[in-house]
Amino acid sequence: MCRHCLQNYIDLLFYNRKLKRLVAIDLKLGRFKAEYKGQMELYLRWLARHEQEAGENPPLGIILCAGKQREQIELLELDKSGIHVAEYLTVLPSREALQAKLHQSIESARARLLGDQEEPRD
């Protein structure tokens, strides 16, 4: 990073070949805070200016934290900035909770898949 940004470092940086873009991951302790958005925007703009090559898509940012509030994420409109927030587990949930979450994820994926297939064709 630049001399003025030395106190800020990207925790993890990957390149996704299929998406043709850099993916910056910022690891945080505790719950998501609104100021994390600004920090990630700095990372993404720096990557776009100094690391993105011709033919690549703009960098994508993922903030990984112990918790988040959906409404806060929606109000910050992170998706418009190419920033996503994901949660990590600090305690392993019960088997029943894991199974319920798995079934919920499968149903959500099916609904998205069927929604994509049911769009009108010209």
Structure description:
By secondary structure, the chain is of the alpha/beta class. It has 2 domains: 3-90, Trna Endonuclease, Chain: A, domain 1; 92-122. The chain is 38% helix and 19% strand. It is built from 3 helices and 4 strands. It has helices at 35-50, 70-76, 95-117; strands at residues 12-16, 21-27, 60-65, 83-87. The protein has a 4-stranded mixed beta sheet, covered by helices on one side. β2 (21-27), α1 and β3 form a beta-alpha-beta unit. The longest helix has 23 residues, at 95-117. The protein is globular. The mean pLDDT is 88.
Beta fraction: 15-25%
Distance between the termini: 48 Å
Radius of gyration: 17 Å
How much is the average pLDDT?
88
Low-confidence stretches: none
Structural class: alpha/beta
Strand runs, count: 4
Domain tally = 2
Question: Under the CATH scheme, which class of the largest domain?
Answer: Alpha Beta
Which descriptors would you attach to this protein?
122 residues, alpha/beta, Trna Endonuclease, Chain: A, domain 1, 2 domains, 4-stranded mixed sheet, 3 helices, 38% helix, 19% strand, globular
